[in-house]
Amino acid sequence: MKKLYIALGGISLGLGIAGIFLPVLPTTPFLLLTAALWLRGSPQLYERLMAHPRLGPYIRNFRETRALPLRAKIVSVSMLWATILASAFLAVEAWWLRGLLITIAAAVTWHILSFATLKNQPNQPNRRTNRTNRTGESRKLSFRTLKNQPNQPNRRKP
Fold it and tell me: For the whole model, what pTM was predicted?
């Protein structure tokens, strides 16, 4: 049974990764299914998935907060509409099929936007600067903040 869980988890992971690039194919449900299957089939694969720098935090955040990052929402909806509109007006000639594609895109957009938007968590570093302050708020790294930081080891004493 464990081999079946591992195999289905691998298929689910492949579909989830494909969903990153194919807007109609959902990413999050497949990644969550992969995590659940590998948790039962192979704890080592589950830990490896959760330790992945891109997929691990995405799965963990969604499981804990049921929310998607704003960037993921924007990219998903943008790619969805770009692909659907290109398909509807460049590849499909039947008006009813165009209408069906646009209806599907509207439904998927509503589904994506129905999830809460994930806010930055305290004590998580800002992606650009990789720094947080003592209150947990991210700040932008600049020459001025580097110059005014106390206890710098390379600073000469007068």
Answer: 0.59
Cβ atoms of 77 and 117 closer than 8 Å:
no
For residue 64, what are its two tokens?
């804990």
Asked if 16 and 31 touch (Cβ cutoff 8 Å), the reply is yes
Contacts 24+ apart (CB under 8 A), 16-22: 21/79, 22/83
Q: Can you read off the two tokens belonging to residue 150? A: 């106390």
Per-domain boundaries in the chain: 1-65
User: By the 8 A CB rule, do 63 and 77 touch?
Assistant: no
3-class secondary structure, 105: helix
Which pLDDT tens digit goes with each residue over 103-117? Answer: 999 998 999 899 899
Alpha carbons within 13 angstroms on the beta-carbon side of residue 47 total 3
Name the phi and psi angles at 148, rounded to 5. Answer: -95, 5
pLDDT recorded at residue 126: 47
Q: How far, CA to CA in Å, does 132 sit from each of 69, 71, 127, 155?
A: 19, 20, 10, 21
- How far is Cα 97 from Cα 89, in angstroms, rounded to an integer? 10
* Cβ-based neighbour number of residue 56 at 10 Å: 16
